[in-house]
């Protein structure tokens, strides 16, 4: 499943967008960050408007308050979780802090003075789940202009962009139509990934 936050709710769905459902919608105002703790089978989220960090199981049940904040405190913004700790960016000072995921103890400030801490992602080898997928065993099953998405370890589907049509014979390959507005000669379509700063926390 994929989990995401929206205004006053948290949702989940299969990677292909099916089975979409709202799992948290009560006593939640503006969740801005969410993290999945796979070993514990729980989600954690930050709600700076409600001034708290909370957790629930993967279906939104067995909800638990991790930490409540006051108006004078730094506000939780984006979070990630690893082992027994939540790593979190805060506003308005754009700091990075660590919090015990069971709510024990106080915040530990790790980094100060960031220009703009829009998100936080922990990269650690032990976080990568050992998950086999048919997308790896059959790399060419979807063609070059589509995305292979595994629904489980034995079944996958091919997703095409909105401007791409499926072949009529039921083939999983996508067909790229002729663009209505071709790119002018001499110009290129470019995409950029900008990293403000890499911080080693572990």
From TrEMBL:
> Which Pfam families does the record match to this protein?
Ldl_recept_b
Against SUPFAM superfamilies, the record matches this protein to: YWTD domain
Q: Which residues form a coiled coil?
A: none
Task: Report the GO molecular function annotations.
Answer: Wnt receptor activity; Wnt-protein binding
Q: Which PANTHER family match?
A: LDL RECEPTOR RELATED PROTEIN 1-RELATED, VITELLOGENIN RECEPTOR-LIKE PROTEIN-RELATED-RELATED
Please list the residue ranges covered by the LDL-receptor class B repeats.
1-40, 41-83
Q: Looking at the keywords, is RNA-binding present?
A: no
Keyword Kinase attached: no
Keywords in UniProt for this one? EGF-like domain, Lipoprotein, Receptor
Q: Which GO terms describe its cellular component?
A: plasma membrane
Q: Gene that codes for this? A: Lrp1b
The upper taxonomy is: Eukaryota, Metazoa, Ecdysozoa, Arthropoda, Chelicerata
> Which residue spans traverse the membrane?
none
| Name this protein carries in UniProt | Low-density lipoprotein receptor-related protein 1B
The GO biological-process annotations, alphabetized, read as: canonical Wnt signaling pathway
């Amino acid at each position: 499943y994929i989990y995401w936050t929206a205004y006053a709710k948290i949702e989940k769905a299969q990677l292909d967008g099916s089975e979409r459902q709202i799992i948290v919608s009560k006593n939640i105002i503006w969740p801005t960050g969410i993290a999945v703790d796979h070993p514990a089978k729980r989600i954690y989220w930050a709600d700076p408007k409600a001034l708290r960090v909370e957790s629930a199981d993967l279906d939104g049940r067995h909800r638990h308050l991790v930490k409540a904040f006051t108006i004078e405190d730094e506000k939780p913004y984006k979070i990630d979780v690893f082992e027994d700790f939540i790593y979190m960016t805060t506003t308005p000072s754009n700091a990075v802090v660590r919090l015990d995921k069971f709510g024990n103890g106080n915040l530990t400030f790790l980094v100060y003075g960031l220009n703009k801490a829009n998100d936080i992602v922990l990269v650690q080898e032990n976080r990568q789940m050992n998950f086999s997928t048919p997308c790896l065993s059959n790399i060419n099953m979807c063609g070059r202009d589509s995305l292979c998405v595994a629904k489980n370890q034995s079944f996958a589907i091919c997703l095409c962009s909105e401007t791409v049509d499926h072949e009529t014979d039921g083939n999983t390959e996508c067909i790229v139509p002729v663009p209505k507005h071709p790119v002018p000669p001499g110009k290129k379509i470019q995409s950029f990934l900008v990293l403000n700063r890499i911080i080693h926390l572990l």
